[in-house]
Amino acid sequence: MSMDTTMLGKASNFIEEAVEEDLRNGVYTEVHTRFPPEPNGYMHIGHAKAVYVDATVAKKYGGLFNLRFDDTNPAKEDLEFAEAIKNDIHWLGFDWNGGLFYGSDYSQQIFNCAVTLIQKGLAYVDDLNADEMREYRGTLTQPGKDSPSRNRSVEENMDLFLRMKAGEFQDGERTLRAKIDMASPNINLRDPVLYRIRHTPHYRTGNAWCIYPMYDFAHPIQDALEGITHSLCSMEYEDHRPLYNWVIEAVGFAHKPRQIEFARLNLEGAVMSKRYLKQLVDTHVVAGWDDPRLPTISGLRRRGFTPGAIRDFLDRVGVAKANSLVEYSLLEHCIREDLKLSVPRRMAILDPLELIITNYPEGHCEPVSMDNNAENPDLGSRMMSFSGKLYIEREDFAPVPPPKYKRLSPDKEVRLMGAYIIKCTGYDTDDAGRVTRVYCEYDPESHSGAVSRKIKGGAIQWVDQTTCLDATVNLYDHLITPGEGDMMERINPDSLIVVTGAKVEAALAVAQPLDSFQFMRTGYFTTDLDSREDALIFNRVVGLKDGWAKINK
């Protein structure tokens, strides 16, 4: 693809400034980025930021974007994870126009690069085990010391490396290490391991290999082979950049990618470690990788977050070098902004209380026209049935109202949304004093839109007992409570509250999985993947109150 020269001088962050500098100076004539996930778990929103940065930089300058699976650790990787990552990237609205690649497809080429380093005297086979290697490595203030194997001849190293490849040695018995500088102030340059032995079948290559390259060795080689110009990665790889550059130079690649680091996304109240996410899944704390309490893309999708809201969130977060903690309320603000005009509004009663209109004609039922979204007339309207037997939210009635209470209470009036004004005339309670039924009278002349009579009470939602449907509603909160210490000891017991016996209007009978709605005065909800017409399930995406917008006006 040709470079979009019109975009030069329009950099919006330090990465784009570096890219434009390279293009102006002729270091590269095009932009080519990549996203290299390891398929050992599902993508979370932190990975989505990396995809967003890589893909948008390439698109802005008319370049290419690759998806490459870093699958060189057979003990952890699985085809399920690779397929899930591909699906999530497409769902987010991105595509790998530069191609789809797998690190395992480069096995022979990476092996050949290792041979090149051995022949140049820049790599050796080491007999130290992991504990001994740590002992020889030194500390941040003390230099390391040479391994007894460091001065082996090229011939001996080649013989041992080929025998490693042939499977003669056990896991951990030998490694291939770079010969750089055991006294380097950068510990990553103290003869890092390039290859280790793994007698484990690979999900794509089977038993073809029993030695596998380390990420710090494979990654720069793969970048160079694919013609990547800018290798964008998170800040923890900043100290690895000298090793990245050393591999490119030592192997002798003519094409030299440039590594640039940016801050990873840390989301308040969310588990952002794939290792911890896997622990939560494996120990069945959550129902799976797509549990709506997880910040995985699959979990966010099932909860009801949209690609547009996530992209808006990532755009607002921006690109920086310093790590920071992003408020979860910003993500919630983005989904509210995305849904408020685009989804229909429906009546749903989560904690139903029976309401009887005593002066309404017995057995009569009438249609009531309701806007699907009062803020977006293009969504049209629907008909709801209205009768003398309804359900209202329990919190919308108070036998003894608190100060400034504007909902239903004895001798007080409220409006039933889109219908009539009613006045409470009495109520029943059970033996424990809990209200079981409310009695009201309605004003037949007060139908919504027919008169302008004003009342002090507010408007409350309702559903008709004769046509409403039963539903299960899942209410989600943060999975992990704030604090220090073991994550597994901070599981929020109220992270999922399952509400059974909710009553929803009949129009929701046709709701399909992942359809979204605003439940009036309650929040935004999405139809769960397991929902059926005869067993409706809705997941709360977010409540209606937008704390982030209020604070950040």
Biggest sheet record:
7 strands, mixed
Counting DSSP H or I runs of 4 or more residues, the number of helices is: 13
The residue-averaged pLDDT reads: 95
Judged by helices, strands and strand pairing, the structural class is alpha/beta
Strand content: 15-25%
Strand order of the largest sheet: 12-25-26-27-23-24-13
List unreliable stretches of 5+ residues. none
Give me the Rg, rounded: 31 Å
| Overall geometry | elongated
How many angstroms does the end-to-end distance come to?
41 Å
Quaternary assembly? single chain
Secondary structure: helix percent: 25-40%
Can you put this structure into words, describing what you see?
The chain contains 13 helices and 27 strands. It is α/β, with parallel strands linked by helices. It has a 7-stranded mixed beta sheet with strand order 12-25-26-27-23-24-13. Strands 21-18-19-20-14-17-22 form a 7-stranded mixed beta sheet, with no helix packed on it. Strands 4-5-6-7 form a 4-stranded antiparallel beta sheet. Helix 2 (45-60) links the parallel strand 1 (32-35) and strand 2 (64-69). It is elongated and about 100 Å long. The two termini are 41 Å apart. The mean pLDDT is 95.
